[in-house]
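Bench notes, bay 3.
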Amino acid sequence: MEEKVKNKNKKQKKLHPNDQNSKSTSDFAFKPCSDVKGLRFGGQFIVKSFTIRRARLLELLRLISLPPPTTTTQHREKTTNWKSPFPSTTAFLPTNFTILAHHAWHTLTLGLGTKKSKVVIFVFESENMKAAMDGLWPPEIPLGEVNKKLIRGTMGCEMARFKFRKGCITFYVYAVRRIGNLGFSCADDLRTILQSVAALKDFIDHTAMLAMPNQKSINYRAVPPPVAMAH
């Protein structure tokens, strides 16, 4: 009996997770692209046809409430040495059609339709990897094809997924690296983006909060300048 108890204890020690030191704890979050979780839509199947587009840098910074890069005289004189923030990051935002369609679908279904939009951010381990993926990925893509073409279709890579619900906008942040690489060389960029998204307040109305200079919200009204009047 004593020998059987000793054998059981030995098996339990082998299966204890603290004894698995083959990988660092930071690598457990990375999984092959075929296994990593993608975008979730719930029961609203119609939103899969809504499109998202590649975001400009200033749009991404504004969305996650980060200050824009400063342009000093030194930067103007030496533009070749200037580097933009997050050079290895690609983000996709809802298009004008998606923003209007979400609002229309919510209205037509008498409030039963979802008003949730999705923002997808990819942080690559290097600028070269981002440039290669930007050349392969389309500038605009339906939400229903993101899992198949962007996440599952990224061959030879593995990802770590982070999801944040911020009111009517859900942020999906993916860290992307080559299979076999340890650690993450752009960890500082990833950390800054995750902290910024986590600190965001809930978006109440994405039609207004996602309005960019060339993408006005549907309730936008131009306010005329004040006119001087003589009394």
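Next record in the batch:
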Amino acid sequence: MGLVRQASGLPCCRRPFRNFVYLLSWIGAFICGSLLTLMSVDPMSCNIHQCTEKIKRIDVEDSNSWLGMWGQNAKGPGKSVFLVIIVISAPGNSEQRDTIRQTWLSEEKSDTLHYFVIGTGSLSENVNVTIQSEQRRFGDLLLLNNVIDSYSALTKKLLASLVYVHYNVKFRFLMKCDDDTYVQIPQLHKELKAVPYKQRLYWGFFDGRATPHKKGVWKENEWVLCDHYLPYALGGGYVLSSDLVTFVAVNSKYLKLYKNEDVSLGVWLASVDLHRVHDTRFDTEYVSRGCNNEYLVSHKQSTLHMREKFNSLKATGLLCKEQFQVRKSYKYNWNVPASKCCVRNDSSIP
């Protein structure tokens, strides 16, 4: 019987020892595997380039999971330009887009790239066919397939645009504007070439005393930060340096989306050590202040106004046939509380 037991395996007295060895082996393998897994994502265990590539892939996937996939490839060839212009538009605003292409965008330089940003979720078949035809013709639409275009989607459209540009274009500066905005591109380009702040630049027309809306389309149900909005550049047009776009894009999954896209951006950048440059040549409020030849950016412009400005510049070199002011401007006072920042008491300010 002893010989039979030896032929079929170890004696019974040695089996507990064998099982204990197997258990230790399993525990050791589990610990080694866990350590290898931790090392693969620990920044102390990989070089900066490898870790950055891992983080970038994760961020793209996380962003796409709620922003939806874009009409273009999610990761493009990485075109290199000096300035990117994103124009927030709506599916039915083809006349505005055509007018912009024929006027101020016709002066776009070779180192400038533009996109018209449109949400295409839940479009009717006829509208979708029209949009796709426009895209085939011009190739300058940034189509957000999972965004239903509306006022309430403006912040999501902005964030999706910044994420897309960050991962697909190499650039120095980005300008955001609306499709009722006129931009003097040559002058803007000249200013950006000479701007002293190549990084951390947030340039536009700022407000710091605005109070949260309690009703209407811009009602902010979830604003709990304070009794005023944090200082922000008004959404008719502003400029960001590429590093600030990067900051927003890589942190996109952590950012709170408020109804107002310009307010949202002000909140996202509130804690960043940056250069807020208030410029009265940005006429970007909810109503135009008039027409001044110094204006670099003019918001609330009809297609007729855009053509008049373009023709005037071509004929006379001046933006306005006649300068006029319907609303006073202000210089932002950064030395007082934000609620007292912006006093309209000087009609000589553009």
